[in-house]
Design goal:
Number of domains of chain A: 2
Largest interface: A-B, 21 and 31 residues
Shape of chain B: globular
Strand order of the largest sheet of chain A: 2-3-1-4
Oligomer: heterodimer
Shape of chain A: elongated
Radius of gyration of chain B: 17 Å
Number of helices of chain A: 10
Bound molecules: adenosine-5'-triphosphate, magnesium ion
Distance between the termini of chain B: 28 Å
Largest sheet of chain B: 6 strands, mixed
Strand content of chain A: 5-15%
Number of strands of chain B: 10
Distance between the termini of chain A: 23 Å
Order of helices and strands of chain B: EEEHEEHEHHHEHEHEE
Helix content of chain A: 55-70%
Chain lengths: ~300, ~240
């Protein structure tokens, strides 16, 4: 038996091959444009989330907030020693004062370099695997040797951002699904309209012994072609927009924004969308047509 | 042995009105040639529609090729329909297909390869006198030409049963004779032929043919299957 999607050369001549008939391809083009944008946003954000997590989640910063210079140095040294023997610590490094000055200069001017403004001592710590669970214990231990210690874990301020990204991801997924549903409904309407238009032809073909499958194949071929053309138009438009946007994001140069990028896998995923759209359109058309034909003798 | 077409107490009612066909019973032998006559509105087309599986009866039993087709599942209908050729009273040509493609339709539906259908289609078009018109759309053909395309389409696949509803209504007597000869030739090859007609000249053209008359949905002269040879084509005058 012939594959359900394949029409022979002869069968193809049974219905006139109308290209871009009606608004169907354009509706699908718009749907696909929006779908690709939503999916690109989703994939980009997911990449950003992964990047943030791997890059920052295991980082903590220890500050020693102490006005007195001598006491601050003492506590900093004590904290460094304590970190050497604590479990769960990967790497730790005292951020030296020239580095801090360079960081703060744009905001505070160079007055503090003359010692006018006390700035905390800072230690960057990369936690060992599993270290994140020991943050509280590490804090206790440090406090006992250096009371002025303040710990800020990056994971802590990442949490709300991660939650936001998570919500946006779900939103993107919901949009993609809604768009797919809207596409399917459009195809249902288009298929019904096509069947109505060609009702007389269908009746005659039935009486000449055509099977529902043969008749469905004729229509679904046309609808799939329309969907594919519309899909490619929508996809191309969306790709242009995504490329322009990613260029803009790059030029912003922020670490958070910069992490929003599309991997090769993500691009392949996007490329699959017009294909999935075509398959969805074809399957929907086939089910609609077979369902409708079922009601004709 | 029963005939190739058997009707037993068949009734047909469209909607809720009176029955269009009532208590129709007859039996057509394989290879027979039958004229179905009767006044306009008697139910000839309705009866033929039951015969070519366009409609299920409201009651009664219909057997085609020995099989009960009243309860035949939808999915099995195409196979039966391919064994029946139909000339519709209103032709029902596909408007956007050329004469050639309309005639080729039953062969394409049956899955005949493109390279195998050109010769029979051209021969058939020659037969009905449309050699030069094979690329014409139905709308550009005269009524008689359309009718000939419809006939060519009905017989091209060598059906076991040929059903023709007023097949000569739109052609001149000369062409009517020629078309009737085509039906007879097919009949001699074993096809069971049923022709609904008003045309008395047509009746005279096949003297050996059976006549079945319908009046107000009832058969007034029941056909006995015993009057036909139960196998092989019916002998016809040429
Ligand atoms: N689809 C339908 N719905 C309702 N009534 C119908 C339908 N088709 C036919 N009829 C009615 O059934 C009766 C028989 O019609 P039919 O077409 O079978 O007659 P006929 O013998 O073929 O007539 P003619 O010689 O004019 O072709 C008519 O009264 C007609 O109005
Ligand atoms: Mg009629």
């Amino acid at each position: 038996m012939m594959a359900w999607h394949h029409a022979t050369a002869g069968e193809r001549r049974l219905l006139p091959e109308a290209r871009l008939g009606g608004p169907m391809p354009w509706v699908i083009a718009i749907m696909l444009f929006l779908t690709v944008l939503a999916a690109a946003a989703g994939l980009g954000l997911r990449q950003a989330a992964t990047h943030l997590r791997s890059g920052l989640a295991d980082q903590i910063t220890i500050q020693i907030v102490e006005g007195d210079h001598v006491e601050r140095e003492r506590q900093a040294t004590a904290a460094m020693h304590e970190l050497d023997r604590l479990a769960g610590i990967g790497k730790h490094r005292r951020v030296d004062s020239s580095e801090l000055e360079a960081l703060l200069a744009p905001w505070l001017g160079d007055s503090f370099t003359r010692g006018e403004i006390p700035i905390p001592a800072m230690i960057d710590v990369t936690l060992a695997p599993g270290g994140a669970d020991r943050i509280d214990a590490i804090g206790e231990a440090l406090k006992s040797v250096a009371p002025a210690v303040r710990i800020s874990s990056h994971a802590q301020w990442l949490k709300p951002i991660e939650a936001l990204i998570g919500t946006l991801l779900w939103l993107a997924l919901a949009l993609v699904l809604l768009m797919a549903a809207a596409t399917a409904f459009t195809v249902v309407l288009a298929a019904r309209a096509a069947l109505d238009t060609h009702r007389e032809t269908i009746d005659v073909m039935h009486l000449l012994g055509a099977t529902d499958g043969q008749i469905a194949r004729l229509f679904q071929r046309r609808i799939a072609t329309d969907a594919m053309i519309g899909g490619l138009i929508g996809f191309s438009g969306a790709v242009v927009v995504v490329l322009i946007l990613s260029q803009r994001i790059e030029s912003v140069g922020s670490e958070l924004f910069g992490a929003i990028s599309l991997t090769t896998a993500a691009w392949i995923g996007l490329l699959a969308l017009p294909l999935a759209g075509t398959i969805l359109a074809m399957a929907t058309a086939r089910l609609t047509i077979l369902g409708t034909l079922e009601r004709i003798l | 042995m029963g005939g190739i077409v058997q009707f037993e107490n068949v009734g047909l009612r469209y909607g809720t009105g009176a029955e269009t066909l009532s208590d129709v019973s007859f039996d057509l032998a394989m290879g027979s040639f039958t004229f179905l006559t009767g006044p306009s509105g008697a139910g000839k087309t309705s009866l033929l529609r039951l015969l070519y599986l366009a409609q299920r009866p409201s009651r009664g039993l219909i057997r085609l090729f020995g099989e009960d087709i009243v309860t035949l599942p939808r999915a099995r209908m195409p196979a039966y329909r391919r064994r029946i050729g139909v000339v519709f009273q209103d032709f029902r040509l596909i408007p956007y297909l050329s004469a050639y493609d309309n005639v080729a339709l039953p062969l394409r539906v049956a899955g005949v390869e493109e390279r195998d259908l050109d010769t029979p289609v051209r021969e058939m078009l020659d037969w009905v006198g449309l050699t030069g018109r094979s690329n014409a759309r139905p709308a550009t053909l005269s009524g008689g030409e359309q009718q000939r395309v419809a006939i060519a389409r009905a017989v091209i696949a060598r059906p076991e049963i040929l059903v023709a509803d007023e097949p000569t209504g739109n052609v001149d007597p000369e062409m009517a004779k020629r078309l009737l000869y085509l039906f007879e030739a097919l009949n001699k090859l074993g096809t069971t032929v049923v022709v609904a007609t008003h045309d008395v000249h047509l009746l005279a053209g096949v003297p050996a043919a059976m006549q079945m008359r319908l009046e107000r949905g009832r058969v007034t002269n029941p056909v006995e299957s015993g009057r036909y040879p139960s196998s092989g084509p019916h002998g016809l005058a040429t």
